TrEMBL record:
GST N-terminal domain residues: 55-136
GO cellular component: cytoplasm
Gene3D superfamilies linked to this entry: 1.20.1050.10, Glutaredoxin
Protein name, UniProt field: GST N-terminal domain-containing protein
Organism of derivation: Chytriomyces confervae
Composition bias type Polar residues, residue spans: 413-426
Region of interest called Disordered, as start-end residue ranges on this chain: 399-426
Pfam families (UniProt xref): GST_C_5, GST_N_2
InterPro entries the record matches: Glutathione-S-Trfase_C_sf, Glutathione_S-Trfase, Glutathione_S-Trfase_N, GST_C_5, GST_Omega/HSP26, Thioredoxin-like_sf
Domain of life from the UniProt record: Eukaryota
Length: 426
């Protein structure tokens, strides 16, 4: 679809940075403290005064940790004002010394509330509920929710039991996972709406991070779509659709590409089936078209806003992006020009123009390094990846970056990007 953004501008090969900045300016002013959820904000107020903030959330810098995600989503949906402090996970960086003074174990997430430190996600949510009330009809530790909480652990165990082992080692692992899905679908069928309780609740924030990661990883490594039409689990599909319709869920979730490459070092490795279906799923996650993936964000009416978001985030960090470009030869200027061409192509939406020769490697390296929601929302990330890949494909000299590591993610050097950490988030 051709974007309306450049409808009055000639097909310039590569707009300059100032023009890209102007064209990607948000349609409406962005309020990181009171507006929609975003991963870049360090203060969330929800219309309240900063002096009334009693909670600080310590979460992982890259927004990869599912337990941090659980608490983050709870805070956003409950609209509890909070500050954010971001901490590295060992798989991509060294744990900050200042954090280990606060939490000697280095465990994430943690909160500080009224001067006390609380760790472990369920304990954190229980403490927040004591102070601010439950999300939904029952608090997390209520006996009424015990069976669901146990089922969440069964889901996690069944997911990892299949994902992290070869099928011939644990032949029953897929069947065990599907059995848990069946039990979940049955429980959801007894609810008056699409959620686990009579309304959106702490049970939905409990399951959401793990459903999201299981959906991505099993699609990529096993060729299995847990919300797919081929499975007769209509209530699970309805739950997923209802969750994706929630703005907060949509804005702080990750895309498939991010999860399938951040999970292996966290879980100790993920095992592919090697089937034709699995290989096709893997290819689509890595190379696109990302709009055809099961997690694709419905962009009707917001696609131009997502294009602007993606370009705006790249423009903000352009110098850091260029600094980590793997091709540091005399083609560096080619990468600058070609990155501007790719962003111009993204804003244009059609009639893609080619990059300079040899720039495909750098564009594809950036394609692989984008992480949502750390860098931008999942919808913006998918559009940016598509633009980078389509532009790189027009470079006849080819070029693919090295495969992403699976034992660690130290390839993700956050230091150049943290220099702008205290500036305006958007």
């Amino acid at each position: 679809m051709r974007s309306l953004i450049l409808s009055t501008i000639p097909d310039t090969p590569g707009l300059d940075w100032d023009t890209l900045k102007a064209l990607s300016a948000p349609t409406h002013p962005i309020d990181p403290a009171n507006g929609p959820a975003n991963a870049q904000s360090y203060l969330r107020l929800f219309g309240q005064s900063e002096k009334d903030v009693q909670v600080t959330l310590f979460r992982d810098l890259f927004a990869w940790c599912p337990y941090c995600h659980k608490v983050w989503l709870f805070l956003e949906e409950k609209k509890i004002p909070y500050r954010v402090q971001k901490v590295s996970m060992f798989c991509y960086g060294e744990k900050e010394a200042w954090y280990k003074k606060i939490v000697p174990s280095g465990m994430l997430p943690a909160i500080e509330i009224k001067g006390s430190i609380v760790t472990e996600s369920d304990t954190i949510i229980s403490r927040l509920e004591q102070e601010y009330g439950p999300l939904g009809p029952f608090p997390l530790m209520h006996p009424q929710l015990l069976s669901l909480r146990r089922l969440e652990r069964s889901f996690f165990q069944a997911w990892c039991g299949w994902l992290c082992y070869k099928d011939d080692v644990r032949e029953s692992s897929k069947a065990e996972f599907v059995a848990v899905l069946s039990e979940l679908d049955n429980i959801l069928s007894q609810s008056p709406g699409p959620f686990f309780q009579s309304e959106f609740s702490n049970m939905d924030t409990l399951f959401a991070p793990f459903f999201e990661r299981a959906h991505a990883s099993l699609y990529y490594y096993k060729g299995f779509d847990m919300f797919g039409d081929e499975l007769n689990f209509p209530h699970l599909r309805a739950w997923n659709a209802a969750m994706q319709a929630r703005e907060t869920v949509r804005l702080i979730r990750a895309d498939f590409f991010t999860h399938v490459h951040d999970l292996p070092p966290q879980l100790g490795g993920c095992v592919e089936t090697g089937s034709a279906v699995q290989k096709a799923c893997k290819q689509m996650v890595n190379k696109g078209p990302w709009s055809d993936l099961p997690d694709a964000v419905i962009t009707d009416g917001i696609e131009d806003d997502l294009r602007k978001e993606a370009v705006r985030r790249v423009v903000k960090h352009k110098d850091a992006i260029k600094a980590v470009n793997p091709d540091q030869s005399n083609k560096q200027e080619n990468f600058d020009v070609s990155l501007r061409i790719a962003l111009s192509n993204l804003l244009r939406g059609s009639d893609y123009l080619p990059p300079l020769s040899g720039a495909g490697l750098g564009l594809r390296h950036l394609r692989n390094q984008i992480s949502s929601p750390r860098d931008m929302s999942a919808g913006a990330a998918n559009l940016l990846r598509q633009a980078l890949e389509r532009t790189a494909a027009l470079d006849l000299s080819g070029g693919e970056p090295a495969a992403l590591p699976v034992k660690h993610r130290r390839d993700q050097n956050s230091q150049p990007f943290q220099r702008t950490i205290s500036s305006s988030v958007m």
